[in-house]
Amino acid sequence: MTDLSEKLRDSGLKITPQRMQVMRYVVANPGSHFTAEDIHQELMKTEPTIPISTIYNITRALSDSGLIKAFEINGRMVFESNMETHANFYCTMCNEITDIPISEEAMANLVPPDYVVTDISLIIKGICRTCNVKEVAAEA
Ligand SMILES: [Zn+2]
Ligand SMILES: [Zn+2]
């Protein structure tokens, strides 16, 4: 818990109970992808009156400060705590997002020489393994 407040303080954010709650949600769900609505539903269990706009503001502050990553899929902002370089594979059948690791080398090769990548958001859309197997089985 001190760890979380330190993280907030280190990133220059003021510590508020609600920010702490959101951070707690984030660390409790490592490797997952979530929306402001997901966090809102969870926080409403303890604070039923918390407005969704508060969650929007907090998630924006956290992603601006580099504590979480934000990207957009189908017009919705999705957040994650995995700060490692990776592509997000979005399954158009089940809406699941899977992390696909990318090596630093592969990243560097994406841009011409003398260009420096400081941030990357790579979204791959397709059909995940689970759905693909189901499809093949249904066709057989
Ligand atoms: Zn799928
Ligand atoms: Zn991801």
Briefly say what this structure is.
With 140 residues, this protein is of the alpha+beta class. 41% of the residues lie in helices and 20% in strands.
Describe this structure in words.
The chain is 41% helix and 20% strand. With 140 residues, it is of the alpha+beta class. The protein folds into 2 domains: 2-80, Arc Repressor Mutant, subunit A (Orthogonal Bundle), CATH 1.10.10.10; 86-139, Dna Ligase, domain 1. It is flat. The chain binds zinc ion (2 copies).
Helix content: 40-55%
The number of domains: 2
Shape: flat
- CATH homology superfamily of the largest domain: Winged helix-like DNA-binding domain superfamily/Winged helix DNA-binding domain
Largest β-sheet summary: 3 strands, antiparallel
Bound molecules: zinc ion
Radius of gyration: 18 Å
CATH architectural category of the largest domain: Orthogonal Bundle
Which characteristics define this entry?
single chain, 140 residues, alpha+beta, Arc Repressor Mutant, subunit A, Dna Ligase, domain 1, 2 domains, 3-stranded antiparallel sheet, 3-stranded mixed sheet, binds zinc ion
Layout of helices and strands:
Layout: H1 2-10, H2 17-28, E1 33-34, H3 36-43, H4 52-64, E2 69-73, E3 76-80, E4 86-91, E5 97-101, H5 104-108, E6 122-126, H6 129-139
Parallel strand pairs: 4-6
Antiparallel strand pairs: 1-3, 2-3, 4-5
The structure holds zinc ion (ZN) (2 copies).
One zinc ion is lined by residues 33, 80, 82, 86, 88, 99.
